[in-house]
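Possible regression after last week's pipeline update?

I re-ran a chain I had predicted before the update to compare outputs. Posting the input and the new output here so someone can diff against the archived version. Not blocking, just want to make sure nothing changed silently.
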Amino acid sequence: MLLQAESLRYVTEPITHTVIVDNDPDIKSWYSMLEPYYTVHTLNLISGPKLNSTVWWNDGWRRQQVYKLLAYKYIKDSYLILDSQNFFIRPCTISLWNNICGTGIFWPDAVNNLNEIEKITLNTLVTYSNYLDIPICYRIRTDGVPFVINYEVMKHYDIDLLVNDFMQQLCVPIEFVFYNLLAQKVNYLGKSIRTVMHDLVRLSNSAFPSTIWSKDTCYLAGIHRRFLVRHNNRKRVNLWLCQQGFVNCL
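New output (post-update):
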């Protein structure tokens, strides 16, 4: 989170940065750690369990999915979701994501020759479509970050009820697939965009760091822990961060 907070220097308009803290009652220590980076922007810390007392899952991976949807109760506006591993690498404004629905990037039309992860996602898509009683449409936006939750979609739903039902479906939960279908149900299209982020876990060692600088429309990076544990990647990434003027490293 320190690296993400530091990277907000690239966001050129004042924003409110909401950080959801999972299962840590000591919110004050989070404030003292993060607040020095918020000279232009506003820090808003929320305790995850306070979003909904029924969020009881022992699995943190499931809880963080629920938090991303429940945040609407407090923000009451459209919002851009990042994972804690994401950070800005170029000057930009959050308004770049105005009217984007989800990622703004669509799945390929074809659903043949899917890998195992894609098959799981497809099963989740079918399960949620049946639950929401909407036609199964394979022309749907991808899941991943950065991801926009739109006010024009969420205002139609009782989010507490939906989140509970979302977690009870007999499939691997994927909050972004669920949201995409909520948008489809109310016919919210938004606009489509180019890719604005690279998850470096998908890149070869030789591609770092050149790939994330190959397009001037890439404003965010996401360096996954699985990438860092390969070979000497952590040292290489931290050297690169230092060269870009970052104080915090991974």
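Follow-up from reviewer: compared with the archived run. The mean pLDDT is 85. Marking as no regression found.
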